[in-house]
Amino acid sequence: MTEGKPHGYERLQSKKSLAEILDVAVEFERVARDFYADLTPRVSKRIRYLVEELAQEEQRHFDLFQALRDRSDIEDQLREKVATPASDGRFSDAVHLPELGQTPDDQAVLQYALGREHAAMEQYRSLAESTSPGPIRDLFGFLANEETEHKNELEKLYYEVVHNSGGI
After folding, report:
1. Domain annotation covers residue 67
2. Does residue 2 lie within any of the structural domains?
3. Which residues in 113-131 are b (16+ Cβ under 10 Å) and which e?
4. How many domains would you assign to the chain?
5. What is the domain range of residue 122?
6. Is there a domain that residue 5 lies in?
7. What's the confidence (pLDDT) of residue 81?
8. What are the CA-CA distances from residue 96 to residues 2, 41, 143 (Å)?
9. For residue 66, is it within any domain?
10. Measured between alpha carbons, how far is 100 from 37 in angstroms, rounded to an integer?
11. What is the SS3 string spanning the chain?
12. What are the average pLDDT values for consecutive 10-residue runs of the chain, which has 168 residues?
């Protein structure tokens, strides 16, 4: 055995089926949708529109993953094993929600949203690069681009809130 190279068992552990990955992604999006929906009435009016939009975006992503997972024409592809992305731990950890209290701070909400968008962007980009051509790769690529756009928009808003005394 060569030092620094993973053993057979370790290599197997570093792979997951696309079905397993989709299950985690569905849960990631569901948790986010529910979190933002529950958060909406408690945030300041300055960012309420944003939290509502985030809940709607997460619902759309959830629906896309569900529809893909339910397709009978990709059953074989769902059994394929792919390398677990380096971002997988951060992505999976994002299912755990912060306690923001009854009147969440705008900055804390934006920080959480930025972290989620970044984790999703990394995960979906990595999966788009490592899956076989077809509908699963297409969806991961689409979502990676969408999450990148969301992250960029959130960064601009975060800068306004934090550095311009909340001048939204």
Report:
1. yes
2. no
3. bbbbbbbbbbbbbbbbeeb
4. 1
5. 11-163
6. no
7. 86
8. 38, 21, 21
9. yes
10. 14
11. CCCCCCCHHHHHHCEEEHHHHHHHHHHHHHHHHHHHHHHHHHCCHHHHHHHHHHHHHHHHHHHHHHHHHCCHHHHHHHHCEEECCCCHHHHHHCCCCCCCCCCCCHHHHHHHHHHHHHHHHHHHHHHHHHCCCCHHHHHHHHHHHHHHHHHHHHHHHHHHHHHCCCCC
12. 46 72 89 94 92 95 91 87 74 73 89 90 91 90 93 90 63
Q: Which CATH number covers residue 136? A: 1.20.1260.10
For 54, the 3-state DSSP assignment is: helix
Residue pair 167/112 in contact by the 8 Å Cβ criterion: no
Here the contacts of 44-49 (C-beta below 8 Å, separation 24 or greater) are 44/106, 46/106, 46/161, 46/166, 46/168, 47/106, 47/109, 47/110, 47/157, 47/161, 47/168
